[in-house]
Amino acid sequence: MNSPFFNLEYNLISYYSETFRISNPPNQVKMKKLIITILFYVFTGTLYAQNDYGIERPKPNEYELDISCGRMAKIFRNQSKEIAFGIRKDNKNNLFFQFNNNEWFQSLFKNPKDGIAVDVVTKDQFDCSFDVLPDEIRGEVIKPVFKNYLLEKVEKVQEGFYQVLVGELPSKYYHKEVEYNIMMINNGYLCRYQTTYNLQSFNYQLLDMGLYLDSITYNQDFQQLDDINQVGKKYKTLSFEIPFSKNKTSFSANDIKPLYDSLRITDFNIKQINIKAYSSVEGTAKANRILQERRGQSIIKALQSFQKPTIKTVVSTSENWVEFLNDIDGTEFEYLKDLSKAEIKNVLMKEESARLEEYLEKHRKALITLYLDKVDRFTEFSENQLIKKFNEAIVSDNLREAHRIQNTLFDRMKSQTVDPDLLFQMEIPKQQKYLDFFNANSLFRYQLNEGNILTSYYDLEELNKLLPNNKKILYNLVALKLKMNHAFRSLPNKTELLKRINSLRDFEIKESLVQRMLVNYHIQLAEENMKKGRYTEKDASVEFILDAYKDISLSDLDYLSLAQFLTYYYDRETAIELIQEKVTKINVNKKLLFYYLNLTLIDNSRTEDPDYRTIMLNAINIDEKRFCKIFNSSEKGGVTFQLLQDAYLRDTYCENCLN
Questions:
Q1: Which helix (H) or strand (E) holds 117?
Q2: 163 forms bridges with which residues in the sheet?
Q3: CA dihedral 228, 230, 235, 238 (to 10 degrees)
């Protein structure tokens, strides 16, 4: 079924809230999208629609509302959260009301004038040249259908899913971007008007515990530049900031000297440079763009001089509105935050630029990230020759050379030029001094394919029997056990697991690493207690997590994992508070930033805050296309264009997404 709502593969679920609050969804292993339906009661005013078909509105008082809509309101208020419904258009432009619980559907319609109508809303109505529509019925209402027809015409689509034809899309909308709002009618009164928001949902992950190789190597250290897991690759990143003077594209030698010094002594090649070049906000957008691009190119030219292999470069440019708006907050210039970009530029051009220079000078810079690959000294050797050289290095006790060869083999296996079974041709004695080779081989097989987690775990258990009490093996066993529990959504032998985590302190494992594992343990314990209805115990685990994470150094992706967990198992507001400060930074992780928007953009109390505009501008700087796509219809991959009903979202969209 081609529908923004019903998608059996993704197991969509809808939540409803009479107060515009979003219910916390349970964790769904296969969930990829979450359709959230926001409703409001229409009490006063006239229909915006061209024809209301005699549908009445209840009077705006509690007694009349209860008389007119009480029965239907009670059904929706008490319905199971697993009940899902929505509107689907087929290839003949028929509109179907689809749902997944026939008993619930039948209970909705008791009176002859109980029914459903579809309101067809077009994106054209939200054109930036128009005034914002009144918050009433927004489009053209299709002729309602009522009880007798609805109950008679229900048909089963497949097991557990039903539909009933509720109208036909008028031909004038065939080539327009449209959405379908649902009007629920109780005894002739409009009692619910619902807009579906296609918000993305995520499965939470554990905090990144890493795995012990030579030292702790975190999952994010294995990330390729395209976000695909890179396994066994010996590479690192360097990040730094280069300031620029006003209208200048060259930089001071002193600003880049520490980087030069580190590159001169390293045995890494620069694989890729990511440059985010920023200009201050005064001046024309065109002139600023030229400055940004020239600054990026000057850095690339300087770094390319260090090596012959061509460096892949990714350069993004933007005006630094985020830090500008952050820096003027609470100052005499705070009034500028209420102006449009064009208005701010006009003020700066006329009078304020010099007075604001103490802020603006900090905004002209480039943020640089270098991705460095370990130099491969064995490019001329085939894999069979490498195996031979590895075995010779082991025999001659040249362990440093053996490690280098092992890493080269890992690189080639990851690039799929070498069969991973080649690992079994390595002739490694089962002795303590060779443990690191066995450990790396086992972990490599897991990181190459996470489906090998059980095999890798059992391999490490055998190593632990042969060579007990090695801290690397013990740490990796616990880390893999936690990962297995998360994958299978189970927590067997939890008392024993907790004991194993705490015992790592006896082997001089850093306390911060133990705390990460304890947080992950309590994430899983909270999930188990939630399933079994032990809410007090679940909340106790959440409180442990909220207390413990403050003492751990977390990456943005760790914060994302915690926020997703809290959204599922605690409350959305705590998740928002957790990441609120992060999303105002220009170097915030894109996934974290857009997850924050996902949690907040349908909350009018937040979008009207001037600081929310700063967050949206940050998202635009990082990925303008993705931000603007939010305001497409769900059928075009957006949340809904009806977000443009919100004047604050609309202003930012119209200012930035129409170029």
A1: strand 115-122
A2: 98, 155
A3: 20
Cα gap 413→420, rounded to integer Å? 6
* HEC per residue, 132-169: CCCCCCCCEECCCEEHHHHHHHCEEEECCEEEEEEEEC
Nearest C-alpha neighbor of 246 from the set 369, 339, 324, 353: 353
Tokens of residue 429, six digits: 């004695």
Give the chain's radius of gyration (CA, Å). 29
Is 90 exceeded by the pLDDT of residue 467?
A: no
Residues written for the chain? 659
- Contact 413/448 with Cβ under 8 angstroms? yes
Sequential DSSP letters for 299-367: HHHHHHTT-SSPPEEEEEEEE-HHHHHHHTTTSTTGGGGGS-HHHHHHHIIIIITTTTHHHHTTS-EEE
SS3 194: strand
Identity of the residue numbered 410: F
Task: Name the percent of the chain in helix, strand, coil, to the closest 5.
Answer: 50, 15, 35
Q: What is the pTM of this model?
A: 0.82
pLDDT the model gives residue 225: 31
Cα 530 off chain centre by: 24
One-letter amino acid at 624 equals E
Residue 511 · residue 491 · CB < 8 Å: no
Contact 258, 240 (CB under 8 A): yes
Task: For residue 27, give the DSSP letter.
Answer: P
Taking the C-alpha atoms of 60, 66, 72 and 76 in order, what is their torsion angle to the nearest 10 degrees? 80
Cβ atoms of residues 548 and 515 within 8 Å:
yes
The distance in angstroms from the start CA to the end CA of the chain is 35
Q: Which residues pair with 275 in a beta bridge?
A: 315, 368
What is the rounded average pLDDT of the residues 339-347? Answer: 92
* 263: nearest Cα among 235, 238, 286, 230: 238
Of 70-84, 110-124, 306-320, the one with minimum mean pLDDT is: 306-320
Residue 2 has pLDDT above 70, yes or no: no
Query: Which residue did the predictor score with more confidence, 647 or 31?
Result: 647
CA angle 548, 553, 556 (to 5 degrees): 105
Query: Which H helix or E strand runs over 290?
Result: helix 285-304
**Which two structure tokens, joined as six digits, stand for 218?**
């975190």
Q: Are 31 and 38 in contact (CB under 8 A)?
A: no
Beta pairing class for 94-99 and 161-168: antiparallel
213, 219 Cβ separation under 8 angstroms: no
pLDDT of residue 319: 92
How does pLDDT run across 609-636, given as a tens digit for each residue?
Answer: 989 999 999 999 999 999 999 999 988 9
Question: Residues near 356 by Cβ (< 8 Å), separated by ≥ 6?
Answer: 282, 328, 333, 348
Give residue 299's identity as a one-letter amino acid code. I
The string of pLDDT tens digits covering residues 364-423 is 998 988 888 777 888 899 999 999 999 999 999 999 999 989 988 988 888 777 788 888
Asked whether residue 171 carries a pLDDT value surpassing 60, the answer given is yes
